[in-house]
């Protein structure tokens, strides 16, 4: 692999604290047969969203995905107190599925067909939502909310992200379908050299704003 054109090289820690994580991400993307689902783990602010964008760009760079492949980002925390609305946004819904469902609407899975769906704060999904996603990860099919028969298919690479402990907050069956679990370290876990690089990067970014 030509590392000179590898977009992951722009990450601070590529040859240090992120070396294992980056190799996991490359393996996930390049795995034969459509890649492997991946979950990014780490506290708020470590760059999980940015990393998800790099995974999408790397997939295009290596011609795993076409240049026009969509990248759809969905933060599950927005609907944490309304699992029905969360599910309807993710899978879509049919007319009459719930009060206010005046027309059949496609969800994020359909919007991401042929590309990448990034589900941030995925621990906000309840058990039913996790089970539905398990079915999609396992078989590539899903049903819109309100449907009781028939299936829809979508070709989607899913990147999950969470700030919480995996074993304590997810169904075991769900986790079994996500073989690549990537730990992104907090700034406090980085070495002095990487911390200095972050400081320089922040200063450069601030100078550009001025």
Task: Write structural notes for this entry.
With 210 residues, the chain is an alpha/beta fold. It has one domain (3-209): 3-Layer(aba) Sandwich (Rossmann fold), CATH 3.40.50. The protein contains eight helices and nine strands. The strands form three sheets. The chain has a five-stranded parallel beta sheet. Strands 3-4 form a two-stranded antiparallel ribbon.
List the helices and strands and how they pair.
Elements: H1 19-30, E1 38-41, H2 48-61, E2 71-75, H3 83-91, E3 92-93, E4 105-106, H4 108-111, E5 116-120, H5 127-139, E6 141-142, E7 152-153, E8 157-162, H6 166-169, H7 172-176, E9 180-183, H8 192-209
Parallel strand pairs: 1-8, 1-9, 2-5, 5-8
Antiparallel strand pairs: 3-4, 6-7
